[in-house]
Amino acid sequence: MLRPPLRLPQPFRRAASTAGPGRRLLLSTPIFYANGPPHIGHVYSALLADALHRHRGLRGAGPSRLSTGTDEHGLKIQQAAAAAGTSPPELCARISALFHQAFTQAAVSFTDFIRTSEPRHCQAVCHFWNALQERGALYKGTYEGWYCTAEEGFLPESQLTERVDAQGCTHKVSVESGHEVHWTKEENYMFKLSAFQDLLQKWLRDNPRAICPEPFYQRVLCWLGEDLPDLSISRERSRLQWGIPVPSDSTQTIYVWVDALVNYLSVLGYPETHGEWWPAAHHVVGKDILKFHAVYWPALLMAAGLSLPERIFVHSHWTVRGQKMSKSLGNVIDPFACNERYTVDGFRYFLLRQGVPERDCDYYDEKVVKVVNSELADALGGLLNRSTAPGINPSNTYPCFSETCFPKVVDYRETEALGRAAAEDYEFVVSVASLPLRVASYFEDFQIYKALECIALCVRQTNGFFQRHRPWKLDRKDPSEKLWLDTIIHVTLECLRVYGTLLQPVIPHTADRLLSRLAVEPEERLISNLTFLPRYNGKPCPFEGRQLGPDTGILFHRLEKSSQHQIENKRL
Ligand code: ME8
After folding, report:
1. Which residues form the Methionyl/Leucyl tRNA synthetase domain (predicted)?
2. Shortest-distance atom of ligand 1 to CA 29
3. Residues whose CB is less than 8 angstroms from the CB of residue 160 and which lie 6 or more positions away in sequence, other chains included
């Protein structure tokens, strides 16, 4: 008989907002299988979590951690090591180091990197298992079913199809991944998942923002409306040696998914210190592992007497020229090569600007070049270049704003132009002023691409403003022309300061160069303190009259078009 979880009420708390000073938060990426090198999909997950982490830090929202790492146990790794003629520990050490290197190179601000082969993790998993056992959530039974090693899971008939190979033999394969499944019958420990169906439904109904974006929330609700059979959570040790043995039964190995999910607790020092952080956790995951995170993980946590994570952010997949990335197609994209070709910031910008969590997105070289050149090199870099060019701004300062040229108006649509600013200038200033809040709200809803879309639009508007008033035609020697010229530059630099500040979570190196050129000090770069055009509102502007930082050249160099698809041909 399953005893009720010790602390049931907590999972049903409404997920708190990430805002609020001093509030701790764990952000996590999945931990990735150490059976092959990282590709751009893995880096994308890490970049989403990184951008959330950096944005939160800049908002001064309280201490946060970002965990990532490698998932090293299981049949998949055992078989990959055998195929590579090496041992699982050797394979895992090599691949894990590559993930560490890829995330470091991509400037992912992780604070914790966990490997499931580490003793701290193995101890946490054993403790978690014992908690499940003591609370009556496990029983031993014979399990029969189709097992997919690539997905490390048993699949129901509804998720299977048949494939005929070149020799005319028929194989059962997974509909989702296309990988072969094998009939498996063995004695296993079973987890009473079915007992949690109602509790899981209640959790989701009470926390409509727990799984985001909305279509994934609906998908999980749908799953929970169907049959939810108990889950086999161990394998016979004779079949699977590469894994953590069941604490009280050395003939069984703990199922790799239970082992892997516990990483979110072991990074926090479970079972001793996790309470300082847990359950303030936001998991970023791909859609392929949604069921594990939104059904199995919450059920396991409830069964172990722990609270549920606050939010699960789900994203879709990258395809390459419309095709799924796969080793057999030879189209797996190497993130190291991408950083070299597009620069770290260029590639970060592309993935986060073009990645839409709700749907699969397509990568190809020409698209990256087009997006990065038009938005980073031309629009943003061009704007900085134009507004700081010696011909326009010979004193190399942040010039003064003139209220006479750009007077404050209550409603620009009903006011005859008093100064030199036109109605569209007022419209664009309103749009930039509201940008920090719009961006924060998109980050909160895991719609980072929309935040970047808004910023890109404002950058275009600023270029329009600059172009419209042709400051290069104004005569600096004429005092009234000079006031207007300085005001145009002041407004433009204020816009650039806002864009540089808001872009820090996405293109940290470029944003740093931009802000340094504008002489914005490190303590002035927080999003929480971001004000825009204070002089328009009659407040002092600390930047006015300040000497600009040194000119370190072009902000972002245009990427060359390539005639061959260099990166796509570089196989992993
Ligand atoms: O599933 N596009 O690890 P994994 C975008 N170890 N993201 C992609 C992607 C693509 N084409 N391909 C993979 C596992 N990903 C388990 C996780 S967590 C406790 C255990 C990303 O190496 C995406 O985040 O197969 C996906 O969920 C994850 O990599 C799967 O990585």
Report:
1. 26-387
2. 24
3. 146, 172, 173, 174, 175, 181
318 lines ligand 1 (CB under 6 A): yes
Spell out the residues 6+ positions from residue 220 whose beta carbon is closer than 8 angstroms to its own. 204, 211, 290, 291, 294, 295
> How remote is the CA of residue 30 from the centroid of ligand 1, in Å?
7
Q: What's the pTM value of the predicted model, to 2 decimals?
A: 0.93
- Domain range for 494: 378-547
Pair 382, 311 in one domain: no
Residue 505 is assigned to a structural domain of this protein: yes
CATH at 230: 3.40.50.620
Task: Give the pLDDT score at 18.
Answer: 40
Structure tokens belonging to residue 154:
């048993």
297 close to ligand 1 (CB < 6 Angstrom): no
CATH code for the domain of 449: 1.10.730.10
Nearest residue to 159 via CA among 171, 173, 143? 173
User: Tokens 């953590």 appear where?
Assistant: 244
Check pocket membership of 298 for ligand 1, CB cut-off 6 A: no
Residues 397-417 pLDDT 10s: 999 999 999 999 877 666 666
Number of domains the chain contains:
2
Residue 44 near ligand 1, beta carbon < 6 Å: yes
Strand partners, 283: 28, 312
pLDDT, tens digit, for every residue of 512-522?
999 999 999 99
Q: Is the CB of 335 under 6 A from ligand 1?
A: no
Distance 507 CA to ligand 1 centre (A): 23
